[in-house]
Amino acid sequence: MANSKVKISSINNLSSNYYKLDKINFEYQLKNGSWQQQSRESYDRGDGAAILLYNPIKKTVILTKQFRMPSYLNENEDGMMIEVCAGLLDDDDPLTCIKKEAEEETGYKINNPTKLFEIYSTPGAVTEKIHYFIAEYNDEMKMNEGGGLEDETEEIEVLELDFRSALTMISTGEICDAKTIILLQYAQIHHLI
What pTM did the predictor assign? Predict the structure, then answer.
């Protein structure tokens, strides 16, 4: 950490139940040169990777649908979310992670995903950085039914959607996941489909 305007005085762990929640007390130097005491909570769940699988010939995309408790607690009536395939890096590099996640969640074995960029989705409270990928898919790449891993308590429905329909689902609110919207709009802007 190389910002001379930040002096961390303490980091106190509040929870390490599933991921890590810390309270950080620090001093921040203002533009006028004075130092201000601040305190923030930071949630560390590790970094992740996400991928949009697209078929330019069929004009389709592969998305997933699964229950997400935090969304359920914040007015998502049934807690179900339509998303691109994604997962935590754990001990893998982003490329290894996303290839593994694609096969586990969607059943498609992808070989050459293209990395687009890295984004901090919620930098005010969460340390997670997501690595974004795209890859073409075809029917021959389908190795299994997908659906996630039972030992990770995953029950994932695999959806093959018309690309234009997926874009419309953003407007209707059926797709309201940030990483999914980012990748669908990337595909639209760059005329991938």
Answer: 0.93
Measured between alpha carbons, how far is 62 from 52 in angstroms, rounded to an integer?
7
Kind of pairing, strands 6-15 and 20-29?
antiparallel
pLDDT per residue over 91-134, tens digit each?
A: 999 999 999 999 999 999 998 999 999 999 999 999 999 999 99
Whole-number CA gyration radius for the chain = 19
